Amino acid sequence: VFSSVTAVLNMSIFKDQFVLEDLIQELNKKSTALSFGPLQSNGHISVQGSFPAIKLLRDFLLLKAKSLPAKERGEESESHQRPRRRLQQHRLTTETSHFIHGAEKEKQAVVLDTDIYHYMKHFYPRTFLGNDGVVISDLTDGDVTTVYIENAGSRSNAEQVPRVKEKIENCSLKLHNVLRKERIYFEEQSGEKKQRYKQACESLKPHHPHVLVIPYDTHIDVIGHSSEIFGFIKAVSN
């Protein structure tokens, strides 16, 4: 059993989008169980801690990396050409970031797992409602959705931007630890069987009001609490 693990992180991928020193400070706050070494000039930094803590840090950085423009990640293909996740069940993750454009017009962002975003949008729509002083927009890139909260321009509304951001963060973090996703694959089933699956899901929705069902051409995603989605999947199978 490994009581401690040391890893070397290459943070240079983030240098064009973030101030690396600020990003390291953010990691220190989020990962109190880890010990970070000094940031090297080439963007490398050593980190030491338990394996579960290192794994959580890796997941956090992977999600943050997905929020970067494709050219920053060294990708040539468009986001819709990347294969979708094949795991039938997995934890949904969230992370946050922010940036400011000038003193009067503040713009902050919350980077969410797209599944969490869909769930929040469906069951907590008021979370994304702006007002006269705050404009909320979103951009989905595959598994990651970035929600932008922007001050419309008035200095008197400047404090509302972080408040709205905090509301979105708090909601997403509560869902982060409890939501699960199951995927029903159509595989090579006929169009008639696919339609029967979709009709079965629609008919079961009233009996599972806290389950989100998202149909696609090749599969159906079912998102919710573990016990609820397992009951839903079992009912669909029957």
TrEMBL record:
Region span, Disordered: 71-90
Domain of life where this protein originates: Eukaryota
Segments of skewed composition (Basic and acidic residues): 71-81
Protein name: RBM43 protein
Organism for this UniProt entry: Pedionomus torquatus
Lineage: Eukaryota, Metazoa, Chordata, Craniata, Vertebrata
Gene name per UniProt: Rbm43_0
